[in-house]
Structure formats: C-alpha cells, structure tokens
Inverse folding.
C-alpha cells in the first residue's frame, strides 16, 4: 500500500493521496491547503518535521525507516500500521519549492520479517543448543531450549521435565541461576512416557492428568523428548491464551524438544565416551602398573584401588582362598574398617563364594539382609555394610583357575550397573593375569631355592654308599629344608606285598603312630608303588585311600615313585596338615628329589654289587689259598662249605662226596646241623641212585628249589632240610666229585657264577687231594705190609706174631681195637686168639671167646666169600642185636673183617673196631686189612709149612 | 596521499563541523542522543582504500549516495555487518541480532546513512559555499573491493577518497565505521580551492 502527500516549503499540503485518505479518514478536500503539522501535530513530536525540513533545506532526499519511526501517520481508528517513508525534494530551477512524502504500509513485510526472524532465532537456538551440547554443557543446552521456546511462543512459561537415570530435573525458562530443579513425576509426564505422543490440552483445569500447578493455565502444549522411541523427558508450554498453543508453537516446541533430546543423547553418548576413555585410562594405568609389579601385595593393592575408582565404588576387598578349603582370607581392603581382616568368609553359601565357584560376577543389594549369619560380622564391619549395602563380586580367573574374588561396595543410593560388572570383569582379568604371573615368579623363585637345596642334597646323596643313609638324607631334607610336615620313604616287600616304612621324618611336635610295616594295598603309596605314577591329593581327608602314619591331621599328601634303573624301588611321600598345600612346584621338587634318590640308589646298588663281587672274589681267592696250603679233602670241603655260606647265607648245609665206583654218597662236612643229625647223615647218607643228588650227579647241573615241600625229589631230613634248597655239583668236567647242598637260594646270577667257579676249582682240588691221598695210602700200605712180612718172617713165637699183626693193623687202619680169630673146628664160629685194644673195660673180643657166625652175618659173609668187608655197627644185618648192643656200649661205631685165607679157604679173621664217629672204612682200608690178614695167615701157617717142608725133605732124603 | 599538517587540520575542522551537524540531525530524527566523532581524517587513492578499511570480515554494509554539483562524487558510510547490526540494536534499544540484515534493517541503516551523509556533505556545501545535490541513497551489502570496483568502472580519472574514521556513540554503546567521499582529482582540487576560498588556510 502506497500513498503520498506533497507539501510546499511552508508545509502546506498540495496533494493528498487516496491511501492517506483511507488511512486517516481525511478526504483530500479537507487536507489540501492545510498545514501538515497542524493537521497531524504528533509528526513534530516524532521528529518527522525535522526530516521534511532537512530535505527542504538540503534538497537531498531522505528516507524514514519503519524501525526507527515505526509509523508516520496514525490511522483513523488510532492504530499505527507500520510504515516507512521517502522524502523527495520538489525543485524548480534548482530551487526546492516543496517536498513529496511517499508513505508505504510495510505491515505485511514486517510480519513476514518477524516470522523469518523467529525462524532464524529458532535456528539460532537450535544451533546454540547443538553448540552447547558439543561443548559438553548439557545444562546450558537444555536451558537454551526452554528459553528459546519461551521467547518464540510469546514469552509464555515453558518447562522441561527430564527423567534421568537416578533423578528427575526441571528446567524453567530464563532462570539464570540454578536452572535445574528437582521435579516430581506427574500425570502428564507419565502419559507422555506411555504414549510418546504430543498432547494439547485446552482446558487444563478440567483435565485429570494435569497437576495443580498447571491447572490455572488456559492451555497446555506438551511434547515428549524421545530417543529412538525411548522417553527422556517432557517439554511443557503453559499458556495464558489458547491461541498461543496454535500456529507455529507446536512446530517450535517439537524442534526444540527434539534438539533437547538430541543434546541429552549426545551428552549421554559423550559422557559414556568420556567415561569409557576414563575407564580405558584407568585400565591402561592399572595394566601399566601391574605390568611392572611383581609382588602379590602390590598387585592386589593397586588392582583393588583402581577397581574401586573405576566403578566409582565406596570401598572394596580382595579375598583369596584360605588354607581351609571352605574359607577365604582377606588379602586386601580399601576404605573398609580394619575389623574386616578378622573375618574369614566362607566360600560355600556366600555371595563372594558364589562368584568364586561359578566364576562369574555376582551382584547383591542390601547385603546384610541377605547375609545368613550377620551376627558373626564384626560390629564395625556391620555398621559399614549398613552404610554401603550394595556389593558386586568378581572372580580372579587366570589359566582357567580361580585365584580369589574382588568385591566392591556402594552406598544404598547407588547401585552397580551392567557396565560396572563388565568393567570389574575386565579389571579382575588383568589383575588375575598379574597375580598369576606373580605366582609364577614366586614359584620360580621357590623352584630356584629348591634347586639350590636339591643340588646340595644331590651332592650329599652322591657321597652316600648305603641306601638307608640316602633315605635319611631325603626325608630329613624334605622336613627340615623344604618345611614339609612329614616325609616318608616306603618300599614294598615283594614277597608279602606289605609296605615297609624305610625312613620317616616329621616336623617337631608331631609323632608317628604306625609300625614299620603297613598292610599291602593300603594308602596312596601303594598305588604309586604299583603304578609308578605320582599322586597329588590336596584334600587327603576326603580320600578313602589316605592312610595316616602320624598324629598330623589329614591335609594334603603328595607321593612320587623312586625309580632305580626303570624299576619302582620306593615311594617318597610328603604331607602337610592342611588342604591345598601342594602345587606343581612341590610336585616337581619331590619328583626331582626322587630322581636324585633313584640315581643315588642305583649308584649305591652298583657300588654294593662291585663290593660284593670284590668280596666274593676275595672269598674265592682266600678259599683257594686255604685249599692250596692244606689240600686235604677235609680241608677242601670245609673251606668250600664255609665259602658258600659266606656268599649265600644259609642256615644249614653239607658236603657229600660221591664214590663213583661204588655209586655211593659219603657225607663229609656239615654246618648248622646237630651232632646227632650229622652222625645220622654220615651213617645213612642219601642214595645216589635216586632223588635230587641223582639228578645233580647225572646232569652235573645245579638244582634250586624254592619250596621243598612241594618237590618230590627232595628227601627231607628233620633239622636239615629247609623251605629252600640249592644243590650244586663239584664237578671236574669228567666226573662229579661231590655235592653241596644248603637251605637257601643264591640271590643272583653273579653269586651262582662265583659258586660255580668256586666249586669247579674246589672239585679239581678235591680230585687231586683224593688221588694224592690214595697214592699215599697205597704206598703206606705197601710199605707197612712189606715191613709186616719181614717182621713176621723172623718171628717164631706165636704170641709175638699175634701182637705184631694186630699192632700193624691197628696202626695202619687207625683202629681202636683189633683181634685175630680162628675158625672153630665146626666152622660155626670164630675163636679169638689174640687182641689189641684201646677200648677201656671189658673187651668185646676177649681172647678165648668165640663169635658165632650166625650172630654176625657180616663175619659170616667174609668167611664165606673170602673177601674183606666193613660196616657200621648199626647197619642192619651186620651183627645180631645183642652183639650190636654190646658194641654200642663199647662205643664201637664201625666194624671191619678181613679173612685169613690159606689155600683158598678162610681159617680165621682179622677184626678191626673203630669208635670214631661216622668212620667209614674205605676200599683202601679193606685192601690194607686184607693184606695184613694175608700176611697173618701166612705167618700163622708157616710152622705147618715147615713141618710139611721137613716132611717133604725127609721123604726126599729117605 | 600525504596531507600537510595545515590541510589535515583544516579538513579535521571541516569534518567535525559536518559531523556535529549530522549528529544533531540524527539525534532529532531518531529521538535519541547520538554523538559522532572523527578520530582521524585522511586522503587516499581509491585503489588503496581497501587496505585502509580493514574490518574483520570482508563483507560490509554501505550506504551509498551520489552527490553532484560543483563538487561531485560518491559518499559512502561503510560499516561491517556486525557494526551495522549493533548500530541498529543501539538505535532501537534491542539486542543486536548479528544476522543477515532484513529489509527493515536495511531501511533503518539507509536512513541513518542518508541523514549522516546529507548532513555531512550538506554542511560542506554550506561552509564552502558550493551547491551540491544528492541522489537517492542506496544500501549495499557487499565486499568492499567489489563495491569500490563498481565505483571505478568507466572512469579514467584518478580518484581519491577522503576517508573519515567514524565513531557512533549511542547510550552506552558505540559503533565504528568509515565515511568516505570519493572524488576525482578535479573535484578534489575544487574541494580544496573552496576550502581555501572559505578561509580554511591549507
């Protein structure tokens, strides 16, 4: 709308446009010719006259703006529509003769500009909200939102109610100080939270959802703050006019509430990001600290402090498993009363224990109410728990093992979130790894110490030559230097299967309560000795196999085998009187100890074998030297028997010489046998034709019998035959000279080899000795017989002859008594004609007495066969019973009879008696006796020869 | 172009008289007490003007009014955009909006510049006794270099600018800008001749 008015320089109206007529209601007829300022005096008040006068004076056009003047002419109704104006000079011949005032109604444009300006301000507000949000000033952003909303909707009251995680806040427009106030939930917010849709209420007073504080408003416009359909808060426009909630207001509130929601989300995301960064920094910090930490104390302390800081806790605790299986010990506490260290929380039935056993975080609120036995909590700790009742527990897990539990607390007003749980899981993982590394380091250090000790023990073991000494070193070291409560070394008796405690050591104050021998199959040790595999039992009380050998309570037991040249020789057991005492380093240490012991035992055994071999060589050499120095059969056999006993410690044994020609055995030497039994064995030795001796004699190989009772080849002699039996031949290679038996079995092949060597050499020596003895005897016999023949040839007196014969026989045959008897005329008996006796008392062969042949079968046999014979008195059939008793009373043990043969016929007997125990007349004795008897027969018949010779000489002469 | 000290003093006196009159007119018109001061006056080649008008932002608001007569040229009130908004805010008692100038803002700015330039140049005419006529003022929002380029197009004459640093003081606030009179060498000579004739010893 345009209009104009022209004026003279005297301000007289010359033209008045239609618009001005319409605006002012003044028709041109009433305006033209009138002074403008008289018609509209207010123009002067507003300086319009100055502008017009300025143009008149300067001739320069001038504009009057809406902003500075708002209007030029007042409307007829008194309103002031916005106007701008331009004053141009009207000139004539370069002289200003008047002015024209052009008026423009700019109301529409002004409104558009206002709307645009509002839009710009809205955009500015949105931009400012974004800027403040980006700057991290959420409060400023939200305050800007409500301020802008209020400004853009006619300055009405605008509220922003926020439902945050743990509080409700309210922002009110243009509250510079303390912009956010606490807010109570109301029906409006609840409704929007439910519907998530805007709400326009035109009659708040009657609306059921409207709280009292908004009831006086004329209209309410409510918009939700949403994030992906999640309700964040409410923006409320409380208007005094219903029209204020129409038009642009919904759009403005929607934009600003959206911007506020974005700011909240951005702020939350940014806060979450900052928190995450802070968390990462803390995690990095603890990770860096723990990377360099080596002590368990340092790791636990740092980990706990950082964990509390990370989840914004009020205190914390670190629990590690105690020695008792169902208990924790408080390893570290942070901001907790000192009394907490008095506590021994149980693993079973507690929240910390639940985290430990399930290996997952456990969160609990109001812990005291859920604690089974709160009365057991120290008073100060109970008060602390009342103040900080919300707890979260997270396990320390590394290498699939749970090392303990971390617990963090918060006050009742603050609860732990899922994020806290994740953070604690992360930090406990880091701490657990550090703890594990620390434990490994401690183990490595312990291992190094153990190795040093082990090295020392190894050196000690290297110098030991007795197994018992080695055992003592090991068990004492395990108790005194490794500080185990008990150490024992057990062997298994292979015969009985029993466990033999070879060495035991217990810590001071503990005592053994078992004998040295334990039942076979008992204890964990039996399994180790059987399988050769280590056994680690950290809960011995729960193991039915556990066998206590001391008064220590059952705790943990570790048992490892001792291998000697791949054989299980023994088992080392160690014990501690509490559970979970042993771990891998302990096992390694004891296994290493067992390996050293096994090596030492192997060396000891080797040394013992060498020593034994040397000793046996010495025995063999000494025996052979003795034999060489005194090579008599008796000495040889005694030496062999003695040497055998030194090599194989038997109880009873004997040597039996074999008469190959007669296929008889002669018992020669015994050890450990009673005199009666020895005599009996000498008188009645085993026969060579059967039994064990026959086998040995034939095979020339030794026989060893472990159980003689089950072997039919064995002839049992009470007091001589044992359970075991070894029977070895003394063989020259051509013949078996003798047999040695004893009631034991050589322990090893080396012993057998030495025995064989000894016996082979002994057999040769025996053969030589026997040959030599035979030769000597033969020579002596011949000499004796020759001497006797010479002596008798010169004797004419019969009594002297008898004496010389009997004296020769007694001396040559080592007799205690000797007699000569002549066959009676009826040839039924033998009459004693002479005797020589060393036997005191009444002699059995009194001169003049007669021994009847029917009473003495042996004598009869000699007479009949003309062959010398000998026998023990007790031999059945040798003599009659009465005569036998008589001989026994005299102490006669053996009898010898040699026939006095003349012309192929026996005329009498040479009789010999020996009281020597076990005396058996040999063939050589019989030969000698027969030679003497022949000389005696010749001498006794010599007078008859003379007579016959004289008769023949006389006849010849005649 | 270097002014001699007497020239500078004479110009300063002339400018202050003109600014005083302009301030009075402006105060009457907008019904507010407005003070105008001119801390410095200088003369430059037109080409050097951008170096002298050194605002933070290249875009400026200018009220441009062509004047003619014995002395002719272009009169400019140059404000940076923030200064222009600030000036409007001070005149309307509203907080400055520092945004794009709308039509009403431009009108107000043009009115202020119109009065200032009319009063300023008009006072020159009266003091120097020369007749000067004015064209209708125009407002431009443009880069200063672009504005000056349009002034130089088609004119081979060497042009100078009488540059007056201008300070508006309104209530508690103040706005700084420039008033520039751009004249050819001939008009500038006449300008100084007129000053000389009017008794200003230069």
């Amino acid at each position: 709308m345009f209009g104009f008015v022209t004026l003279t320089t005297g301000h007289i109206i010359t033209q008045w446009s239609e618009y001005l007529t319409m605006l002012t209601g003044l028709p041109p007829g009433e305006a033209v010719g009138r002074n403008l300022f008289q018609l509209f005096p207010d123009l002067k008040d507003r300086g319009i006259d100055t502008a017009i006068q300025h143009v008149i004076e300067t001739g320069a056009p001038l504009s009057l703006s809406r902003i500075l003047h708002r209007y030029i002419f007042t409307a007829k109704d008194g309103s002031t529509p916005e106007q701008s104006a331009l004053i141009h000079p009207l000139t004539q011949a370069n002289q200003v003769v008047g002015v024209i005032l052009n008026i423009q109604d700019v109301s529409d444009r002004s409104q558009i500009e206002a709307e645009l300006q509002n839009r710009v301000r809205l955009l500015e507000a949105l931009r400012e909200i974004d800027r403040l949000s980006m700057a991290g000033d959420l409060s400023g952003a939200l305050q800007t939102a409500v301020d802008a909303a209020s400004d853009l909707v006619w300055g009405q009251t605008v509220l922003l109610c926020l439902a945050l995680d743990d509080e409700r806040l309210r922002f009110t427009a243009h509250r510079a100080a303390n912009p956010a106030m606490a807010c109570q939930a109301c029906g409006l917010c609840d409704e929007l939270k439910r519907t998530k849709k805007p709400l326009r209420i035109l009659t708040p007073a009657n609306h059921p959802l409207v709280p009292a504080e908004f009831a006086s408003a004329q209209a309410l416009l409510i918009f939700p703050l949403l994030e992906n359909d999640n309700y964040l808060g409410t923006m409320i426009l409380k208007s005094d006019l219903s029209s204020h909630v129409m038009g642009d207001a919904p759009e403005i509130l929607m934009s600003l509430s959206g911007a506020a929601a974005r700011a909240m989300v951005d702020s939350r995301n940014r806060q979450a990001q900052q928190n995450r960064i802070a968390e990462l920094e803390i995690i990095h910090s603890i990770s860096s600290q723990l990377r360099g930490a080596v002590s368990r104390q340092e790791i636990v302390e740092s980990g706990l402090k950082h964990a509390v800081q990370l989840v914004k806790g009020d205190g914390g605790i670190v629990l590690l498993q105690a020695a008792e299986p169902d208990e924790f010990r408080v390893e570290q506490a942070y901001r907790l009363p000192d009394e907490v260290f008095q506590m021994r929380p149980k693993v079973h039935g507690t929240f910390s224990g639940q985290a430990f056993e399930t290996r997952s975080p456990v969160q609990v609120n109001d812990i005291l109410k859920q604690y089974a036995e709160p009365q057991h909590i120290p008073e100060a700790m109970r008060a602390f728990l009342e103040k900080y009742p919300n707890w979260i527990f997270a396990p320390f897990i590394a290498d699939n093992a749970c090392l303990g539990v971390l617990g963090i607390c918060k006050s009742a007003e603050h609860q732990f979130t899922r994020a806290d749980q994740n953070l604690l899981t992360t930090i406990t993982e880091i701490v657990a790894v550090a703890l594990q590394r620390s434990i490994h380091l401690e183990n490595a250090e312990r291992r190094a110490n153990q190795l040093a000790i082990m090295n020392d023990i190894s050196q000690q073991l290297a110098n030991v030559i007795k197994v018992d000494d080695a055992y003592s070193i090991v068990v004492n070291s395990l108790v005194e230097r490794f500080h185990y409560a008990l150490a024992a070394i057990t062997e298994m008796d292979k015969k009985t299967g029993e466990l033999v405690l070879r060495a035991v050591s217990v810590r001071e104050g503990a005592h053994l309560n078992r004998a040295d021998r334990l039942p076979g199959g008992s204890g964990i040790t039996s399994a180790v000795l059987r399988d050769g595999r280590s056994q680690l039992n950290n809960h011995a009380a729960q193991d039915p196999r556990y066998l206590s050998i001391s008064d220590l309570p059952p705790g943990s037991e570790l048992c490892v085998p001792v291998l000697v040249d791949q054989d299980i020789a023994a088992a080392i057991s160690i014990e501690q009187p509490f559970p979970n005492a042993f771990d891998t380093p302990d096992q390694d240490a004891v296994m290493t100890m067992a390996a050293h012991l096994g090596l030492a035992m192997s060396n000891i055994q080797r040394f013992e074998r060498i020593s034994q071999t040397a000793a046996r060589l010495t025995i063999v050499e000494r025996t052979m030297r003795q034999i060489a120095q005194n090579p008599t059969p008796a000495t040889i056999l005694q030496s062999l028997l003695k040497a055998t006993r030194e090599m194989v410690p038997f109880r009873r044994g004997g040597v039996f010489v074999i008469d190959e020609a007669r296929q008889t055995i002669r018992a020669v030497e015994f050890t450990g046998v009673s005199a009666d039994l020895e005599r009996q064995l000498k008188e009645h030795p085993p026969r060579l034709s059967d039994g064990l001796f026959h086998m040995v004699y034939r095979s020339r190989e030794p026989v060893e019998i472990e159980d003689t009772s089950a072997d039919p080849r064995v002839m049992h002699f009470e007091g001589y035959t044992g359970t075991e039996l070894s029977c070895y031949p003394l063989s020259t290679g051509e013949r078996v000279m003798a047999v040695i038996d004893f009631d034991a079995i050589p322990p090893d092949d080396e012993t057998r080899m030495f025995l064989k060597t000894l016996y082979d050499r002994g057999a040769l020596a025996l053969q030589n000795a026997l040959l030599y003895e035979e030769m000597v005897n033969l020579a002596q016999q011949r000499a004796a017989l020759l001497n006797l023949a010479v002596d008798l040839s010169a004797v004419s007196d019969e009594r002297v002859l008898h004496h010389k014969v009997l004296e020769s026989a007694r001396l040559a045959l080592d007799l205690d008594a000797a007699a000569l008897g002549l066959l009676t005329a009826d040839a039924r008996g033998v009459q004693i004609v002479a005797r020589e006796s060393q036997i005191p008392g009444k002699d059995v062969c009194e001169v003049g007495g007669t021994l009847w042949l029917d009473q003495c079968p042996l004598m009869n046999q000699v007479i009949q066969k003309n062959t010398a014979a000998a026998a023990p008195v007790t031999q059945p059939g040798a003599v009659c019973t009465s005569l036998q008793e008589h001989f026994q009373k005299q102490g006669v043990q053996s009898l010898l009879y040699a026939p006095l043969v003349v012309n192929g016929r026996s005329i009498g007997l040479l009789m010999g008696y020996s009281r020597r125990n076990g005396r058996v007349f040999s063939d050589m004795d019989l030969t000698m006796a027969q030679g003497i008897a022949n000389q005696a027969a010749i001498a006794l018949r010599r007078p008859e020869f003379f007579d016959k010779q004289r008769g023949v000489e006389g006849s010849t002469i005649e | 172009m270097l002014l001699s000290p007497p020239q500078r003093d004479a110009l300063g006196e002339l400018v202050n008289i003109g600014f005083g009159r302009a301030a009075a007119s402006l105060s009457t018109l907008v019904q507010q007490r407005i003070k105008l001061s001119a801390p410095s006056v200088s003369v430059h080649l037109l080409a050097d003007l951008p170096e002298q008008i050194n605002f933070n932002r290249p875009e400026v608001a200018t009220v441009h009014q062509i004047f003619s007569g014995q002395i002719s040229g272009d009169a400019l009130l140059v404000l940076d955009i923030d200064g222009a908004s600030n000036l409007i805010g001070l005149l309307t008692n509203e907080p400055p909006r520092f945004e794009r100038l709308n039509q009403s803002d431009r009108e107000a700015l043009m009115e202020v510049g119109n009065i200032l330039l009319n009063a300023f140049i008009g006072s020159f005419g009266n003091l120097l006794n020369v007749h000067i006529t004015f064209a209708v003022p125009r407002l431009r929002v443009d880069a200063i270099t672009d504005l000056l380029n349009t002034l130089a197009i088609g004119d081979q004459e060497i042009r100078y600018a009488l540059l007056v640093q201008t300070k508006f003081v309104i209530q508690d606030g103040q706005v700084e800008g420039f008033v520039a009179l751009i004249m050819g060498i001939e008009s500038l000579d006449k300008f100084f001749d007129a000053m000389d004739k009017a008794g200003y010893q230069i």
About this structure: Strands of chain B lie at 34-37, 41-45, 59-69, 73-80, 132-134, 138-143, 159-170, 173-184.
